[in-house]
Amino acid sequence: MAERQYVKISIEDRVALLTLDYPPMNVLNTATVIELNDALDELLTNDEVKAIVITGGGQYAFIAGADINQIASIKSPDEARGLVKMGHVLMSKIESAEKPIIAAINGYALGGGLELAMACHMRICNNRAQLGQPEISLGIIPGFGGTQRLPRIVGKGRALELIVTGARISGAEAANIGLVNKAVPAGEVVRTAMGLAKKIASLGKLAIAAALEAVNEGMETTLEEGLEIEADKFASLVGTEDMKEGITAFLEKRQPKFVDR
């Protein structure tokens, strides 16, 4: 496994824990985005990894946003667009992954940090963490997908309130509005996320990928077209060894032993 300056990886029970460790606040800049992209490529092509948890190193932040110094150095609209597109590539890679990716939000998740968390398939959050899109206070707007993913998750009204005021909310409030799946005490964030990931990793890879694809593709189209996508994904699983094992195990009243085929 490649050595990286800012991204650390450990693997346990077929779940990879990916930690962005760039103290003190784990900000996103060209160097950290490149390393995150590279690490995800490695994990998404590793057949021994079935699920991924992303968290932040240290005790303060998940990812506290983009590197303000890098933003301040932007000299032209073309340069700004290039930076934004680099972020879009990373977020799209996470969102479209065929392996479930869970954000373990252990501290501040602001700006690009919240945008990365929203690209993940699920989010577990410290109930006292601070989440928000504060870019408006810098005279700009979210650029790594916040204006698009936030309303899709919490609805247009709530999203606009957070975006145009730059307000921060707690992890507990984020759970109440559906921005995160669950808020837990600070010391339990990674453990809870890893537990969820291990539960998913114990199931069949083919069905997990089909479910992710059906939901992601269906969300971008009409209900009728989405149902066709679902039908195709369902049909693609018929006759697989995992389907046979799952049904046999159910009838025999035992736990299935999936082989990912």
As for the number of domains, it is 2
- Radius of gyration over alpha carbons? 19 Å
Q: Would you state the CATH class of the largest domain?
A: Alpha Beta
Indicate the percent of residues in helices: 40-55%
Beta content = 15-25%
Textual characterization of the structure:
The protein contains 11 helices and 10 strands. The chain folds into 2 domains: 7-201, Alpha-Beta Complex (2-enoyl-CoA Hydratase, Chain A, domain 1); 205-251, Lyase 2-enoyl-coa Hydratase, Chain  A, domain 2 (Orthogonal Bundle). It has a 6-stranded mixed sheet with strand order 1-2-3-5-7-10, sandwiched between helices. A 4-stranded mixed sheet has the order 4-6-8-9. It is globular, with a radius of gyration of 19 Å. It is α/β, with parallel strands linked by helices and 261 residues long.
What does the secondary structure layout of this molecule look like, with pairings?
Layout: E1 7-12, E2 15-20, H1 30-44, E3 51-56, E4 61-63, H2 68-72, H3 77-95, E5 101-105, E6 108-110, H4 112-119, E7 122-126, E8 130-132, H5 146-154, H6 156-165, E9 168-170, H7 171-176, E10 182-184, H8 189-201, H9 205-219, H10 223-237, H11 241-251
Parallel strand pairs: 2-3, 3-5, 4-6, 5-7, 6-8, 7-10
Antiparallel strand pairs: 1-2, 8-9
Helix pairs in contact: 1-3, 3-4, 4-5, 5-6, 9-10
